[in-house]
Design goal:
By secondary structure, the protein is of the alpha/beta class. The chain has a single domain, classed as NADP-dependent oxidoreductase domain (TIM Barrel), CATH 3.20.20. Helix 1 runs parallel beside helix 2, helix 1 packs across helix 9 and helix 7 packs across helix 8. About 45% of the residues are buried.
Length: about 300
């Protein structure tokens, strides 16, 4: 299978990327530099993660040419609105130390103030037209949010970054994205949200120890994490695993030398519980989740 994918505007991106969600700023540069050394060429961050500067530093330390790295970040809800989002771009590129972004995403749909979401997306359309970004997208948008967005804007999002893992396949949304020609990008691709500290109940199961995944991994001489990442890629999704461990960073990248059977893919699909691990997109409001995004 190809190691890269094509967006709906012809821009290509790696099928497997590197995420930095919850990576402390002081550890981000080291992790990004290591990921790029191993072979990752897509780095995903966000204004709300507070580590864009570390991503930029890791990119500079890598010694790679800017054109060889696909850089994506996200606008937080506190910066929604047309002019506010244009300024959010300036803050992002200032922290990252780049002139152009490969992908800029709206982090949440903010359904309670969707007029601001529309204005923010129109700013992304302007940045795209001006060549300041190569592609634009959204994150955590449900089918209804996508319909409302498309009714009011012109450019179909290139990407919808959403929670997808074996315990929450998010099938309805995957099908909606596919119908609209939007690439689904999986955050929490190995189910990490089910055992991140601070999320949900303490008794949540870890996908890494799931018997079905263990059996498949054993058959291929791979880890359960590698099996889950391969599952995403073979079903046409882009995935962005995160880690600060050099061993895990390398392990997560080592997934291009085996193939899951159709039966194995189907058995992983059956693990879906229908239960979201992360926050409900409808519940995200500026009152509860707003935070000031510092200047560059």
């Amino acid at each position: 299978m190809s190691t890269d994918l094509s967006l709906n505007n012809g821009v290509r991106l790696p099928a497997l990327g590197f995420g930095v969600f919850q990576t402390p700023p002081e550890e981000t540069a080291v992790a990004v530099e290591e990921a790029l050394r191993v072979g990752y060429r897509l780095i995903d961050t966000a204004a709300a993660y507070g580590n864009e500067r570390g991503v930029g530093e890791g990119i500079r330390r890598s010694g790679l040419a800017r054109d060889d790295i696909f850089v994506e970040t996200k606008v937080w809800i506190s910066d929604y609105g047309y002019n506010e989002t244009l300024h959010a771009f300036e803050k992002a590129v200032g922290k990252l130390g780049v002139d152009q972004l490969d992908l800029l995403i709206l982090h949440q749909p903010l359904p309670s103030e969707f007029d601001l979401t529309i204005d923010a997306y129109r700013a992304l359309e302007t940045l795209l037209a001006d060549g300041k970004v190569r592609a634009i997208g959204v994150s955590n948008f449900l089918p209804d949010h996508l319909d409302r967005l498309l009714d009011a804007t012109t450019v179909v999002p290139a990407v919808n970054q959403i929670e997808v893992h074996p315990y929450f396949r998010n099938t309805e949304l995957l099908e909606k994205d596919d119908k609209l020609g939007i690439l689904s990008q999986a955050w929490s691709p190995i189910g990490g949200i089910t055992f991140y500290p601070g999320w949900g109940d303490d008794d949540r199961r870890s996908t890494l120890e799931d018997p079905t995944l263990v059996e498949i991994a054993t058959a291929h001489g791979k880890t359960t994490a590698q099996v889950m990442l391969r599952w995403h890629l073979q079903q046409g999704r882009q995935a962005i695993p995160k880690s600060v461990s050099p061993t895990r960073i390398a392990e997560n990248f080592d997934i291009f030398d085996f193939t899951l059977t159709d039966a194995e893919l189907a058995s992983i699909d059956t693990l879906d519980t229908g239960a979201r691990g992360g926050p409900e997109p409808e519940a995200i409001t500026r009152a509860a989740w707003g935070r000031e995004i510092p200047e560059a």
